[in-house]
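Explain this record to help learners:
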Amino acid sequence: MTSGDSFYGGILVFRGFTSLMDPALYAPLPDDWSVGVADIVDSTKAIAAQRYKAVNMAGAAVIAAVTNALEGREFPFVFGGDGASFAVAPDDLASAREALAATATWVREDLDLEMRVALVPVSAIRAQGLDVRVARFGPSANLSYAMFSGGGLAWADAAMKRGEFAIAEAPDGTQPDLSGLSCRFEVMPAARGLILSVLVMPARGADPHAFRKVIEDIIHLVERSPDGGRPVPLQGPPLTWPPQGLEYEARTKRGGPLVVRRARVLAYTLFVYLIMRFDLNVGGFVPNIYKRQVVENSDFRKFDDGLRMILDCTPQLERALSDRLAAAARDGIVRYGIHQQDAAMMTCFTPSALRSDHVHFIDGARGGYASAATALKAMMA
């Protein structure tokens, strides 16, 4: 057992998202750990060019590459739409560094995007008077997602954007291990009126108790919505063939010319489509169980020094959320961004379809978290 296994594995998983802001659920990262951060440069331009699926694929690739580099060991991470954040123990630092460097190269060469990556020592964060604390939220019995508090993750992200703690790209042609990363499902249209991307951060100098109250009010408003505003249909996301994400998935594969990789993915996804379409049990894989787990395992809400949610909601709920957030902003408690769109999208990390802990990252399909972040920045200007 590594030091990472003993720490993160020892944090109790909590159920019920309404408990999110309970400080007793969060454990401080050991001082010798490091925080990894990554984001896409000029993601707003990529969104304007209708390339948000590529942006999401890049963010999810960070988590896939580090997970595979750590040989599947659990570590805390959070998907941010146009990037990702995570934390690793000293034993895993070198592997994470290599995975980040290789992912940045792959994103540039295969997705034609620029990715910043950095590794920030927790000790450097604490030297700023901030902290990195981690909780584990279980949306289902299948798996848990990390939640972060303490302000340290936001500081690490800002430091990366200033050019600090940067990791240089790997040499041209370096390919990270992205096994299990895919985006085969189609977008998920809003069923209740609109898909809302929500991002809520504490205002500078805000009272922590007042911020906690605002977040809890927002969560309670959302909990009244059917299925807590989950944007993934109960029957699972739509699946067609050939899949919309065929080209991206082909580029995650190692070995051989792209045309060959594309043909292999085309053949394999046809096989998968037929299994799912006709509900065929194959080698222990049961389509209906997998579809149910996809719904249960979707990460449409999270906390990483701020609240992030992708909600399928009514216009009435959107107004209620906007009114509460606007009042809190006037009181100097929060800064926030919201973005409306007509559909959500899913990017999947499934190292094994026979296990129940496959991960499904949710974002808005027309700008998502990145557009909400742009709205938040405009509020601060």
